[in-house]
Amino acid sequence: MIPVARPALPRVDKLIPYLRQIDEARIYTNHGPLVDLLETRMAARLGLRRSEVVSCSTGTMALTGVIHALRSRSGRTGRLCLIPAYTFVATAGAALSCGYECHLVDVDRDSWALEPDSLRCHPRLGEVGLVIPVAPYGRTIDLQAWQDFHEETGIPVVIDAAACLDRLMKADASLPATIPLAVSMHATKSFGCGEGGLVLSRDGALVQETYKVLNNGFLGSRDAQVVGLNGRLSEYAAAVALAELDGFAGKSGQWARVAAAYAAAAPLAPKARLWTMPEISACYVLIEAASARDATVLVERLVEHGVDIRRWYGAGLPAHPAYRHLSRDPVPASDDIARRVIGLPCFTDLSEADIDLIAGLLAT
What is the pLDDT of residues 105-124, one digit of tens each? Predict the structure, then answer.
């Protein structure tokens, strides 16, 4: 079986210098020196100020923490949160855990994402207290358009950019003026530390508020100033992330090799499309079949020949028992995309022989 993902994080010899620092400092969590170093280095890598980055224990916690922080600051009473019907379940889970009522909206057929123009005339816009656009699979979304939407409507916006960190680390990436992004450092992502997340925003005051939320409500004293969460990144996870950052140029080259090998392999079935970096995050290779029927045939063929596949977002949020009760618009584009998009094996040491095998199965 060729697995769909086989994460490769820094090996133990790369971790030892950081683990020795933990041994010497005897600080293991609570925003220790390695977490501070990680946030400082990551801010520099992303072209941000140190005050514009805060780390946390998971990507979902990044989204949850910044939603809590925004809600306490915005003063909006609307309890409705608009989210795309085509996304990973954590998007809805984070909003619901913060007390919002989620309403599912269809995505654009081309971008697979929410588009701000489609929401300006939404019939429930007056009830909305939050919008969570998603950058699906790390695809680029129009951040400035969402900044404009926020400024025109006053509705808070948080970008679920879980898979975007590798793309944001490129020199031409830029963040909107005030809208925050939540990103993941899960082991399966292009940049990973096992479990971890980051909140990024040019609004330093919002980042500080998020820090407070994720620190059990504490900031500068032992008096909890808000009802908070324990969402801090441990020093051990920071050690892995720092070693990952040390070697990320080499890892990026490995991701690029896999994408290039797929692109150079045999032609696809008629009207199918292959998605790889740089159009999406490097940790994904996707096949977009021409129809749901074609997708079913491709899946059956791949699995029959020992190739694992993944429907990363499942069949969309309405198909999950935990979320099928959520109110929603008609979502034909989301349903169609969910049926046609298939995750293929993608990891840094995937062999070209395996890629040729997979491509051959896709070519008929």
Answer: 999 999 999 999 999 999 99
Interatomic CA distance for residues 83 and 67, integer angstroms? 13
Quick: pLDDT tens for 52-82.
999 999 999 999 999 999 988 877 778 999 9
**Helix (H) / strand (E) containing 197:** strand 197-200
Distance CA 77, CA 79 (A): 6
Residue 101 phi/psi, 5° resolution? -95, 120
Q: What per-residue confidence (pLDDT) applies to 172? A: 65
Place of tokens 């939404």: 122
Sheet of 286-288, strand order? 273-275, 286-288, 341-343
| SS3 (DSSP) at 77 | coil
Give the residue extent of every domain in the chain. Answer: 12-246, 248-309+344-362
Report the alpha-carbon distance of residue 231 to residue 212 in Å, rounded: 10
For the chain, give the longest Cα–Cα distance.
Answer: 65
Residue 289: what pLDDT? 95
What is the pLDDT confidence band of residue 202, given thresholds at 50, 70 and 90? very high
Q: Which residue is associated with the tokens 């998603």?
A: 134
pTM above 0.90, yes or no: yes
With beta carbons less than 8 A apart as the criterion, state whether 276 and 313 touch. Answer: no
**CATH class held by domain 12-246:** alpha beta
Report the alpha-carbon distance of residue 361 to residue 364 in Å, rounded: 7
